[in-house]
Specification:
Elements (H helix, E strand, L loop, with lengths): L7 H123 L1 H19 L5 E6 L5 E6 L5 E5 L3 H8 L4 H26 L9 E4 L3 H10 L1 H9 L2 E4 L1 H78 L8
Helix pairs in contact: 1-2, 2-7, 3-4, 4-6
Length: 352
């Protein structure tokens, strides 16, 4: 059998040989290429894993950054609130300190005003003491204050007029009333305190004694009225120093006051005397109230006796009424029995 190149069998064999040659060549070429592709795929997988790790790291970094930013913002907010509270507290403390400072300044201003007023009062007191009439009024005001502190309002009268036309500074409502007059021998006392030597002091003490004796005689003549006032009176000296000088150096003045029944008192001894008089007034009022109660009890006993007599009379009336009722009951029982007997009688006649 003869084969030619245009024979299909030959052409098929040639093509098969060519195809095998091409395949073998491809195998020779693709073998190293597949290994390189495997290496490249491995590197791509590693690169992908690294990229994923990097993405996770970036996520953690972003999360950490967010947490840090939140923490910083929270710290900043806390710091802002702390600074606000601190500033507010400091402002309140400053305002309170300023308020306390203003109050202290007001207290200082008030104290200064009181000091100025007191200075004015001291000057006015000096003016009062330099004027005899005003000085007498000063003693009367001090006496009035003592009376108001020690006695009830209805226990005394101020500037009371007696039957001789004289007006006494105070009249204590005892039985009989006790007169109180305020005296203040300032000129003689000032002369005594300003005396430079013993001779001047002796003369000033004599002048003080004469002034006090004159006051004692005036009180005894004007304010001790038999049958109207008490047999003694009080001379009120609104100065403890003058009172102490009288008791220390002027015994003749004391003897004359005792003889005239004019008792010299100072503010302290006057308060003690008034407290004693208050106890006396209390006892007097208690005795008056006891007499009133005793009188009312006697009247109550008399009323009770009259009530007892009237009750006895009413009891006799009740006894008489009870006897009359008993008699009426007896008469009623008799009438009832007679009615029953009449009812039992047969008033029907015999038949015709």
């Amino acid at each position: 059998m003869t084969l030619t190149w245009d024979d299909p069998v030959v052409i098929g064999l040639v093509l098969s040989v060519v195809a095998l040659a091409v395949l073998w060549r491809l195998v020779r070429v693709l073998g190293p290429l597949s290994s390189r592709l495997a290496v490249l795929d491995s590197r791509l997988s590693s690169l992908n894993e690294a990229q994923q790790q990097l993405a996770g790291g970036l996520g953690h970094v972003a999360q950490s950054q967010t947490q840090v930013i939140g923490l910083v913002e929270s710290r900043l907010a806390d710091m802002g609130r702390y600074m606000g509270d601190t500033l507010s507290g400091n402002a309140q403390a400053t305002a309170a300190s300023m308020g306390a400072l203003r109050e202290r300044l007001q207290v200082i201003d008030a104290a200064q005003a009181k000091i100025e007023a007191l200075s004015g009062n001291v000057l006015s007191l000096q003016d009062i003491l330099s004027n005899k009439q005003a000085r007498g009024a000063f003693g009367e005001v001090q006496l009035e204050a003592l009376l108001a502190d020690a006695l009830p309002p209805d226990a005394y009268s101020l500037q009371a007029t007696l039957s001789n036309g004289r007006r006494v500074d105070a009249l204590i409502h005892l039985a009989p009333p006790l007169a109180v007059d305020a005296k203040f021998p300032l000129e003689a006392w000032q002369a005594l305190t300003r005396a430079a030597d013993e001779g001047a002091r002796v003369e000033a003490r004599k002048a003080l004694s004469r002034a006090l004796r004159g006051h004692i005689r005036a009180i005894s003549e004007r304010y001790i009225l038999p049958g109207e006032t008490a047999d003694g009176a009080l001379m009120f000296l609104p100065s403890e120093a003058v009172y102490a000088e009288v008791h220390a150096s002027l015994p003749d003045v004391l003897r004359e006051s005792f003889a005239a029944r004019v008792w010299i008192v100072s503010p302290s001894t006057c308060m003690a005397t008034l407290n004693t008089l208050r106890a006396v007034l209390k006892d007097t009022r208690l005795r008056d109230e006891a007499r009133t109660i005793r009188r009312e009890v006697q009247l109550l006993v008399e009323d009770a006796a009259r009530v007892g007599a009237r009750v006895a009379k009413l009891e006799s009336h009740f006894a008489q009424v009870q006897g009359d009722l008993s008699d009426l009951r007896i008469s009623a029982d008799k009438i009832t029995r007679r009615g029953v007997r009449l009812d039992d009688l047969d008033f029907a006649g015999p038949p015709d």
